Amino acid sequence: MNAVYSENLPLPLLVKEGQHSSLFHSEGRRDFIILFFPYSKTVSRRALDNNKGFTLLELIIVMFLIGLTLALAAVLFSNTLPSSKFSSTARELAASVRHARTLAQLKGEKQTLTIDIDSRKYGIDSVTSKDIPPGVFIKVVDPLQGDIQTGKYQFSFPPIGGAEGGTIVLWNSKKTVRIEIDPIVGSAMVK
After folding, report:
1. How many CA atoms lie within 13 A of 175 on its CB side?
2. pLDDT-based confidence at 118, cuts 50/70/90?
């Protein structure tokens, strides 16, 4: 349907035939009806053709909202990053305990997990060591020696099962995790 615009006509509203009782059509077509509202804004054809973009104010507002959203997302993710590093360190340390126990049983020889608290590293003797990230603190609670917060501590896993050692305690500014090693079975439980 071709709509004819002239200067200062009200904006038309196109409605399918049958949705309204009054019918106005041109050129013998009965597909659409055009309803004119007396209180609608009048525009010229020239004004309709020139309104094809965004104003500078609209662009500035959108850019401001995008920047605000990105800033809030950055703050949110920066607060969760230390927590995720802490959780991953606890999981990796518990996995290293389980791995040392499994290696001892598979190879039939004693395996040792060493935690070097001073250099902030841990690892199984036959495998490379891993770093403890900054902001994560560690100590070992030995059943005989008490809290050990400096030096090296070794957990031994004999091939017949079990473990010799204490409990590993990890903490940061928000949370504390204990990795308890069962002396009979040698399994690690994160609490």
Report:
1. 14
2. very high
What backbone phi and psi angles, to 5 degrees, belong to 79? -75, -30
**Sequence-separated contacts (24+) of 80-85 with Cβ below 8 Å:** 82/135, 82/172, 82/173, 82/174, 83/172, 83/174, 83/175, 85/133, 85/135, 85/136
9 CB burial (10 A radius; 0-12, 13-18, 19+)? middle
SS3 178: strand
Other Cβ atoms within 10 Å of 40 Cβ, number: 13
Both tokens of 161, joined, read: 């099962």
Q: Give the number of other Cβ atoms within 10 Å of residue 120's Cβ.
A: 15
pLDDT (0 to 100) of residue 1? 46
30-49: per-residue pLDDT in tens?
Answer: 444 444 444 445 555 555 55
| pTM metric for this prediction | 0.58
Q: Cα dist. 126→36, 61, 96, 100 in Å?
A: 86, 59, 12, 9
What's the rounded Cα separation, in Å, for the pair 125 and 116? 12
10 contacts 40 by C-beta, under 8 angstroms: yes
**Could you say which DSSP state residue 156 is in?**
E
Query: In 10 A of CB 69, how many CB atoms?
Result: 10
How far apart, in Å, are the Cα atoms of 59 and each of 54, 161, 173? 7, 68, 42
